[in-house]
Amino acid sequence: MSRILITGISGQVGHELLRSLAGLGELFPTTRAELDLSGDPQGITQALERIRPDIIVNPAAYTAVDRAEQDEAAAFAVNADAPAILADWAAAHSALLVHYSTDYVFNGEGERAWTEQDPTAPQSVYGRSKLAGEEAIRESACRHLILRTSWVFGIHGANFLKTILRLGQERNTLSVVNDQIGAPASASLIADVTAQLLQRYLDGGAADFPYGTYHLAPLGETSWHGYAVYLLRRAAAQGYALSLAPDAILGIPSSAYPLPAKRPANSRLCCDKLRQAFGVALPSWQAEVDKALSQLPAANQAGGTPSASRKETGQ
């Protein structure tokens, strides 16, 4: 039975991985207290030597996009230095490393969905730190899967979906940016696709497995404003008691909501490579939002602050 180490299980994706990877092997889930990727590199190596995983799944990340602008060292420690350590250990022990990255590695311009072959040009400390982590993994030559995601949400943890639900019950007016385009990806989708890829790896063996970097996002696209409107319309249809009418949400440009870190205007991700390599069938972003709403109890609708919700990868 394969030994599977999962980092960051307190995060959105880590929480879902506990569910999706159950049955694929012997799981070794770790919190930050048990495996601190921001801490002493020797401590990371010691944990790896103690667990001796065959597969390392690393959703842990520094995702405080705005705080990273003033705390670059911390962002790079978690997003770049720690993945490098994991990758070097994986290379030395013939282990597989599954790592999650982000659309922030691109410059965020244009209107075409980003492919894996497009040049990277991150515009924030967060994006640069995530790209550095990717590069360290590739340079290690370890067996790896790097899955780039965007606009992550889920029923666990603070995120845009839960914040909008809360504000929809508390306010009668709300402004949301309408010039940033992407596709909301649920943590459960990311975890389920990860399980599908790992099952392929375990069934087929290491020799012929299509390692590499892949984009993972649901079908379709929307703006944050369109996302919020759709979410509250569906919530109202499911009986949520709202004080905010969905059509009353005002769309505003990013310039009206300045933040320390630059957000991508274009977060579209082309997932053709993933579908062709693994035969993955991806749902629409609307279906993922509907599923999350159906799973979220009315008593558990508290979310994070609006500023925190603008980057909710939960990796």
- Percent strand: 5-15%
Briefly note the structural class of the backbone.
alpha/beta
- Parts with pLDDT < 50 across at least 5 consecutive residues: 299-315
Rg (CA only): 19 Å
Helix-strand pattern:
EHEHEHHEHEEHEEEHEEHEHH
- The helical percent reads 25-40%
Number of strands: 12
Which CATH class of the domain at 3-157 and 184-219 and 268-282? Alpha Beta
Strand order of the largest sheet: 2-1-3-4-5-10
Task: Based on Cα principal axes, name the global outline.
Answer: globular
Averaging pLDDT over every residue, what do you get? 93
Indicate the CATH architecture of the domain at 3-157 and 184-219 and 268-282: 3-Layer(aba) Sandwich
N-to-C CA distance? 26 Å
The name of the CATH topology of the domain at 3-157 and 184-219 and 268-282 is Rossmann fold
CATH superfamily of the domain at 3-157 and 184-219 and 268-282: NAD(P)-binding Rossmann-like Domain
Sheet bearing the most strands, described?
A: 6 strands, parallel
Our count of helices gives 10
Protein name: dTDP-4-dehydrorhamnose reductase
Family: Belongs to the dTDP-4-dehydrorhamnose reductase family.
Function: Catalyzes the reduction of dTDP-6-deoxy-L-lyxo-4-hexulose to yield dTDP-L-rhamnose.
Domain RmlD-like substrate binding: 3-295
